[in-house]
Amino acid sequence: MKKILVLLAIAGNMLLSQSCNENKKNSEDSVENAHDANDLKEQNGSGQTDDTNDFAVKAAAGGLLEVTLGQMAQEKGQSPQVKAFGQMMIEDHTKANDELKALAARKNITLPTTLGEDEQKHVDELASLSGAEFDKKYIDLMEDDHEQDVKLFSEAAQEEEDAELKAFASKTLPTLQQHLNKVKAMNTDQ
After folding, report:
1. What angle do CA 83, 87, 92 make, to 5 degrees?
2. What total number of domains does the chain contain?
3. C-alpha neighbours within 13 Å on the C-beta side of residue 188
């Protein structure tokens, strides 16, 4: 009798969980969908912890944004410094994104494949600008974004439970710090 009650409780929880998640599946936000997929994997015992998933998804979303905005800087940037910084973003973050994708595949972590709504807002904002106005906003955004990145990766390098993701954060952190230092210097020059 106890086994039947336990099985019924499990089935009920699964149905409730599935019905709650049906609303989330309708979202077009790739970042939100990745979080939801990872939550389900964690609940089913086939995924990573919430903190590990959260770091991986945030790192991937940030990396996608950096590459996208780097491409915009190549196209819309007026200053040679902004164009060069944009190229560095494309190269460095594509490399880090590829490494993170491989790690996530091994760890059964779902990553966003497109920009989330928050990241898309930054792209849309910059898309309406050009020339010196674009350059200034891009540099300001890159400074703010890299401050957040350095904080995220510093915490993961110290506290991440998964050894491989911790090593990834530690390895990537100096590059992010270099980006932050460079963009701060660019911001001072303007």
Report:
1. 150
2. 1
3. 6
139, amino acid identity: I
- What single-letter DSSP state applies at residue 123? H
What is the mean pLDDT of the segment spanning 78-103? 97
Rounded-to-integer distance, Cα 114 and Cα 112, Å: 6
The parent domain of residue 151 ranges over 2-189
- 85: domain CATH number is 1.20.1260.10
User: Could you give the dihedral angle defined by the CA atoms of residues 190, 136, 98 and 118, in that order, rounded to the nearest 10 degrees?
Assistant: 140
- Whether the per-residue pLDDT at 108 is higher than 70: the answer is yes
Neighbours of 34 (CB within 10 A): 23
pLDDT tens by residue, 146-188 = 999 999 999 999 999 999 999 999 999 999 999 999 999 998 7
Q: What is the CA radius of gyration of the chain?
A: 20
Length of the chain: 190
